[in-house]
Amino acid sequence: MKDRELPEDVRNLIRNSIPTLEALELFMGLARSGDHAWTLGEVASLPAAEGLSPSAVANFLTTLEEQGFLHQTQPGHYRYQSESPEATTAVQGLIRAYDERPVTLIRTVYAIADSRRIQGFADAFRIKPKRDS
């Protein structure tokens, strides 16, 4: 690994859970909130959610819940909770990168997002096998 890169577990966390800078900011707010249980409205009112539709925020919360980063303490109230020690380590690395290496972190989020878009474009040109009718 090059010194300027983030650890692999942090890059995997970004690749799997953090598609945009807005998602990074929301994730950081949730991860740093301790035992606070957030409602959709509270998350949607965070500065990082500005410009996002409530349904986009809800989809992000659902995704994080499915991935084991959020737990509903009661219906519609989400609290950060890491599912495994490995996930906790990756989130701690993400927080450290956010605090100590923000430029590297932002570049990584953009690079991973760009690679997704490029792959999607390339996949559009992939020849699909012909099905028999």
Strand content: 5-15%
- Secondary-structure arrangement, i.e. CATH architecture: Orthogonal Bundle
> What is the molecular shape?
globular
CATH structural class? Mainly Alpha
Query: How is the biggest beta sheet arranged?
Result: 3 strands, antiparallel
Helix count, DSSP H or I runs of 4 or more residues: 6
Radius of gyration, taken over Cα atoms and rounded to an integer in Å: 17 Å
Description:
The chain is built from six helices and three strands, in the order H-H-E-H-H-E-E-H-H. It has 133 residues and is mainly alpha-helical. The protein has a single domain, classed as Winged helix-like DNA-binding domain superfamily/Winged helix DNA-binding domain (Arc Repressor Mutant, subunit A, Orthogonal Bundle), CATH 1.10.10. A three-stranded antiparallel beta sheet has the order 1-3-2. The longest helix is centred in the last third of the chain and has 23 residues, at 102-124. The protein is globular. The relative contact order is 0.17. The model is unreliable at 118-123 (pLDDT under 50).
